[in-house]
Amino acid sequence: MIRITNLHKIYRLGNVEVPALQGVDLEIADGELVAIMGPSGSGKSTLMNILGCLDVPTSGSYELDGQQVAGLSDDQLAAIRNRKIGFVFQSFNLLPRMRAVEQVEVPLIYAGARQRRERALAALASVGLAERVHHRPTELSGGQQQRVAIARALVTQPSLILADEPTGALDSHTSEEIMGLLQQLNQERGITVLFVTHEPDIALHTRRIVHIRDGRITSDEAVPEAQRRIALPASARPAAPTAGPASTETQEVAACSWPQASA
Amino acid sequence: MQLAASFRVALGALTANKLRTALTMLGMIIGVAAVIALMSIGRGAQEQITAQIQGMGTNLIFIRPGSTQEGGVRGGQGTAQSLTLDDAEALASSPLAPHVLAVAPEMGAGGQVVAQGRNWSTRFTGVTPAYADVRNTRVAAGEFFTQQQLDARAAVAVLGATVAQNLFMDSDPIGQTVRINSGMARAGVSFRVIGVLESKGGTGFGNQDDQVLVPLTTLQARLFMQRGRQGGLRVASINVQATGENDVRAAVEEIGEILRQRHRSAQDDFVVQTQEDFLQTFSQIAGTFTLLLGAIAGISLVVGGIGIMNIMLVSVTERTREIGIRKAVGARRQDILLQFLVESVVVSLAGGAAGVGLGAGVSRLISTISVPGAGGAAQALQTVVSADAVVLAFCVSAAVGLFFGIYPAMRASRLNPIDALRYE
Question: ipTM of this model?
Fold first, then answer.
């Protein structure tokens, strides 16, 4: 559960104060799937950084699962990022030279978790990459790299996944696959998914779209059922999970029956 | 983060850039090798000196005259001229000295020895037959003089190996006559050569091959007469052999008692030194010398450490984004700190290990070099790679890695995750 009240963030560039967020109020319930939209410089990245505990607000309150985040130390924030939040970035942000399974193990190492290899393999399997666990980033396509990143975000079983333009570097077919995966995680595991996007099509994969401009929320609307897009999750297609032509078929939500992929 | 995981990450990062890692290590390798090689020379010298002192005879105690005191003015050691032949005899025969096995007084004088048209300037040492045992000295040819010859003040001489070589070259000196010009015997006194000493290969510390041994009584009667305060024949020093290695302390006590009684002076006019004292002194000197060499070589370790720091700073900058990613997925400051510290310590320790190997090799190479020893004989420079030097080199290289790694690691750990993630 996310509750933000009267959040301000001011950057100081030399003597000039640049307000990035000017009194944002936002509440997101557990299990929601929300898109945040807005032009560049609107403050949406700043909002995401604060939500992700990568940055701290100048003033205002941020409650995550009932815990007040503002005012925590660096290491406490790191622990929250590790246990509660999974990040997915536009540029994947995988570590160079490491095998996929090792990438996914990294958060578990910092969590001090046991059975890291097994858990990492399970996470990779759940994003449909069971066959590519020993590949390095340079040996994977963009979509595959983003799925490794999603597996890395998933592996600590966070309650919140924050995605900063997760499809920004992908073609439309692959984008659909990734959105399908996020929808599946949201639906099946009840993980709250929050992502920033520029593309209205991608935003329509959610149930709620928040618009931001000049550091303020300008609109916060539910997606009409008729416009919602459902992407078939890639891992739900056992035949040619990665190599085959991406199916971008979308369906009405009412008509969709979710295949139960084992986590 | 567990140390094992840090190690794996560090090894991964180091093998990713092999040439750079190798060059960084080279700084440490050269530094450690220099420390090991130079310290091995110091250690070698130390062992050589120790062996030489021990070669003089075991359980040895040296008695020398103390300093004089005339109206409050104190002279230097040896100015007292207090030791006499009677002192030596008292020590040898006293029932109060059960731990004294043998006593060998000696008296030295410089001078010239002439034979077969050749001459040689050397030292004449007046000794008693006990000298051979006490000072662990053997004759290579001929024989040592006897108590009878001592009592008779016989004009016989035992030549040191260097003296025999210089005077007689390859011919046999036994039975030959040498003329000695020394002290009051300016005109020269003829001595018959009855023996030649075994070479001890001595260097520095009083070359024992370059001397002529004559009976003490003969030296005093014919070459160099001097009487002490109490009228007895003066001796320069008295060598005492204790009954056993563990009896040296007891023997020193006994000697002190007897001499104090005999001299009846308020203040000790003699100094008693044991071989252990000598060993300690020389070990200390050699130890300081070794440390000095090590410290000089240590400078190159510092240079190697700066190399590590330089490369680690570059590495932190290059991997800013990686640090950002790791922080985003939950790495704490200490995790990042540890990762980079482990990396620099691995480099420095690996360099240290290779350096120990190289240093040991260089040390072996040095030990094959011949240096001119005393008496003109060439002799190999002794080197010893001691365990403590190796341990020291390892510890120092780990410390260098830690010290020079800490600043880059701190910089890495303090990076702001957002800035780090945005870094291109």
Answer: 0.86
| Residue A65 near chain B (CB below 8 Å) | no
Give the gap in angstroms from C-alpha B9 to the nearest C-alpha of chain A. Answer: 10
CATH 3.40.50.300 fits A29-56+73-255, yes or no: yes
Between chains, do B417 and A54 touch, taking CB under 8 Å as contact?
Answer: yes
Residue B78, pLDDT score: 55
> Which 3-state string (H, E, C) describes chain A?
CEEEEEEEEEEEECCEEEEEEEEEEEEECCCCEEEEECCCCCCHHHHHHHHCCCCCCCEEEEEECCEECCCCCHHHHHHHHHHHEEEECCCCCCCCCCCHHHHHHHHHHHHCCCCHHHHHHHHHHHCCCHHHCCCCHHHCCHHHHHHHHHHHHHCCCCCEEEEECCCCCCCHHHHHHHHHHHHHHHHHHCCEEEEECCCHHHHCCCCEEEEEECCEEEEEEECCHHHCCEECCHHHCCCCCCCCCCCCCEECHHHCCCCCCCC
- Looking at residue A244, what is its pLDDT? 41
Partner-chain contact B333 A156, CB within 8 Å: no
Reply yes or no on whether the pLDDT at B320 is more than 90. yes
Query: How is the beta sheet containing A59-64 ordered, strand by strand?
Result: A16-28, A2-13, A59-64, A67-68
From the list B330, B334, B418, the residue facing A55 with the nearest CB is B418
The answer to whether A187 faces chain B, any CB pair under 8 Å, is no
Can you list the residues of chain A whose pLDDT is less than 50? 237-263
Cβ contacts of A87 on chain B, cutoff 8 Å: 328-329
Average pLDDT of chain A is 86
* Residue A54 forms contact with B (CB below 8 Å): yes
Whether the pLDDT of residue B17 is over 70: the answer is yes
Average pLDDT over residues B313-330: 93
**Domain definitions of chain A by residue range:** 29-56+73-255
Q: What is the pLDDT of residue B258?
A: 87
Bigger pLDDT: B204 or B121? B121
- pLDDT, residue B256, reads 87
A54:B421 CB<8 A:
yes
pLDDT of residue A126: 92
> Residue A103's closest chain B neighbor by CA?
B326
Contact state of A93 with B417 under an 8 Å Cβ cutoff: no
When pLDDT is averaged across residues B314-332 and rounded to a whole number, the result is: 93
